[in-house]
Amino acid sequence: MMRIRFKKICWITLFCFVSAMGYAEEQEAEVLETVTVTAQKREENVQEVPISMSVFDGMDIEDKMVETLDDIAKYTPGLTIINYGAAVKYAPSIRGLYSDYSAISSVAGLFIDGVPVTNGSGFDETLLDIERIEVLKGPQGTLYGKNTEIGAVNVITKKPSNETRARITGELGEDNKRSLSATASGALIKDKLYLGVYGKHYEKDGFVKNTRTGEPVDDREHNYGKIYLRMTPTDDLEASLISSCIKYDNGGNSSGSIQGKDRAVSNDLDTFNKSSVWSSSLNINYTLNENLAFTAITAYRNFNEYLANDFDYTSGPTQFHVFADSTYETLSQELRANYEVDRFNLVSGIFLESNDTKVDKTSSKASGDTEMLEDIDADTIGIFSHLTYKITDRLSALAGLRYDKVELEYQDASQNIDGSESELSPKVGLTYDLLENVMTYVTVSKGFRCGGFNAGVPEGYPKTYDPETLYAYEVGAKGILANGKLSWDVGLYYMDITDMHVSVTDVIDDAEDVGYMTNAAEATSMGVEASLTYQITRGLNLFAGFSYNKTEFDEYNDGFTDYSGNKTTFSPKYNYTLGMTYRAEQGYYASADLSGYGDMYLDLDNEYKRPAYELVNAKIGYETEKYDIYLYAKNLFDRNYDTEGHYGAYTYYSQPREIGVSMTYRL
After folding, report:
1. Dist CA 474 CA 478 (whole Å)
2. C-alpha span between 445 and 494 (Å, rounded)
3. What percent helix, strand, coil does the chain show, rounded to 5?
4. Which is nearest to 244 in space by CA: 228, 257, 259?
5. Is it the case that residue 508 has pLDDT exceeding 90?
6. Burial level of 411, CB count in 10 A (0-12/13-18/19+)?
């Protein structure tokens, strides 16, 4: 019945879109605004960048009710954010490759106002007063370095300026959701010194019931704050200091045993997650002349993982409890020069990074407690250069090369292991302007993510694993049609993957699990991504996106099972989105969208999978110069899309419907 209902929704939505297009012929239409991005570390029109990418500005983020990066994935072809049931540990999956939350390396990098997040933990950010989010797909190692093997996400906050901006937003929703945020920015000294301050409080009751207490185990609460200090002492010099902190006061995970029913557990442990993230960045830009500019970015990030989780979900003798008080600390420095003259553009620089990971975990099982005290250090140096040359008015060539060297050290109570990795990340390509507003491109690039250490594994299990590398071949096109009202893009890719990272769990004595990372032999990934935006008429906008991916092992045999030909884990077969927004001159507002994902396997045997699912979001309201008020619904039809069977043992529960009201007041 549910699937029939969604088919009806699809047909109704399509009918509305077709009707709106017909109606648009009688209306005065607007053209789409030019979108400027910094994906290649210089300002460019997005239509001229030879990268498959999705861009969201501040208005998009508000219209689509985006609160976290998990929300942005619904509207990005080829991107999935894997939610492990926790409110802190999210991991990206792009084009069939994903990051395990326990890994120290990621398939994609997250860059928040210059602060890099390239490990498998803490792939999240509170989004307040955002200028834009850029989601880049395909290897980005030439300009972004290690652990951007298959993509990068740039989050850019609006710069404080001479314009005074201030707003307060409050939300009330189902499960006792309460959210209050405030932002304010403006000039302290006109044309010289500017300040932005941002804050948010969020809390919401959980939906997974503990049958022992009758209370939910997965309540959510956090507090977030950020300060943005910007200086422009001269026309040629700009410096920005941005600092933020988020502190969580959550319950346990929204997860249970695969045998569990009705989203209920019987925990005998008081679970919590009181993790925190502190980050700061200093960005300095100096323009020497019209051809040459310099950039320096110093960034620091500290992620403290402080939690207690019950993974046996029972009230009997202790089977599997986990306690953690670990710290992931990163300090980085990038120095970059941008040189542009006539038909030639060159971006070159050096990147230095120091990662210090201190793991402090205790696992309590039926056999006793196991304490894990480990120190993992990684020091990185990267040297890169990327150039673009306009051969003719229509034809351009690009070439880039980066050298990264990573020194690794692992230490625990009984051993000290040193390691070193070095990789070259080349990229070459051509772009050709097929028509005045249609650009085509072809690129070949290499991506990699670092190897690492397997923490706490017994003797006989691999202590280390090697880097994963791939070569990607991509052709694409993007353009503007319909007199500036329709933007579109499409890309096709094929990737050869070597030493693919695979997360494995073994069972010892039918009781204890041992999880570790290893390298599979080879895999291939291929697919297509497409999206469009159509400004039908003034205030009426249509957007759509689609991706299809096939990623499978060419060769992988662990000595017990041959997985060759099996699909890789956590890689949905497809995802799509279809939606529209309407903003009337009289202040009335309405939006609705339909998004969905295809089947996704959860284990190497391809025995467990999350079935395909669809979600509907909707929002209506009234907007004025001073205030906005909305009634909204996320997952309107309360679709269940639980992830059942991770490691053959766990279920991660999907978020239930949320209906609420939101009000914004601008001072």
Report:
1. 13
2. 11
3. 5, 60, 35
4. 228
5. no
6. middle
**How buried is 19 (Cβ within 10 angstroms: 0-12 exposed, 13-18 middle, 19+ buried)?**
exposed
Confidence class for position 282, pLDDT limits 50, 70, 90: very high
Strand order in the sheet with 643-646: 255-257, 650-652, 643-646
Residue 328 one-letter amino acid: Y
Q: How many CB atoms lie within 10 A of CB 372?
A: 16
Q: Looking at residue 458, what is its pLDDT?
A: 72
Confidence tier at 26 by pLDDT (50, 70, 90):
very low
Domain tally for the chain?
Answer: 1
Determine the 3-state secondary structure of 22 from DSSP: helix
- One-letter amino acid of 492: L
Q: Which residues pair with 283 in a beta bridge?
A: 240, 297
Sign of the Cα pseudo-torsion (136, 142, 144, 145, in order): positive
pLDDT band per the 50, 70, 90 thresholds, residue 103: low
Paired tokens of 111? 């860059």
- Give the chain's mean pLDDT: 89
- Is residue 13 over pLDDT 70? no
Q: What is the pLDDT of residue 632?
A: 97
d(CA 66, CA 49): 25
Q: Give per-residue burial for 34-60: e unless 16+ CB within 10 Å, then b.
A: ebebebbbbebebbebbbbbbbbbeeb
Please write the tens of the pLDDT for every residue from 181-213. 999 999 999 999 999 999 999 999 999 999 989
Residue 92: both structure tokens together = 């990206």
Q: Going by DSSP bridges, is the β-strand pair 486-498/600-601 parallel, antiparallel, or unpaired?
A: unpaired
Cα 559 to chain center, whole Å?
34
Strands 540-555 and 574-583: antiparallel
Q: What CATH number is associated with residue 634?
A: 2.40.170.20
Is it the case that residue 416 has pLDDT exceeding 80? Answer: yes
Q: Diameter of the chain by CA atoms?
A: 77
Look at residue 94 and tell me whether its pLDDT is greater than 80: yes
The pTM of the full predicted model, rounded to 2 decimals, is 0.92
Residue 216 DSSP one-character state: B
> HSE-up of 84 (CA within 13 Å, CB side)?
20
Spatial CB neighbours of 521, under 8 Å, sequence gap ≥ 6: 498, 499, 500, 553, 554, 555, 556, 557
Tell me the three-class secondary structure of 247-260, residue by residue: EECECCCCEEECCC
CA separation for the pair 305, 322 (Å, rounded): 12
Domain that holds residue 121: 2-666
In sequence order, what DSSP letters do the residues of 141-197 get, joined into one string? HHHH-TT-SSEEEEEEEPPP-SS-EEEEEEEEETTTEEEEEEEEEEEEETTTEEEEE
Q: How far apart are the first and last CA of the chain?
A: 48
Which region, left, alpha or beta, applies to residue 391 given φ > 0 means left and ψ of -120 to 50 means alpha? alpha
Residue type, 537: T
Going by pLDDT thresholds of 50, 70 and 90, the confidence category of residue 132 is very high
Question: 């120290």: which residue's tokens?
Answer: 104
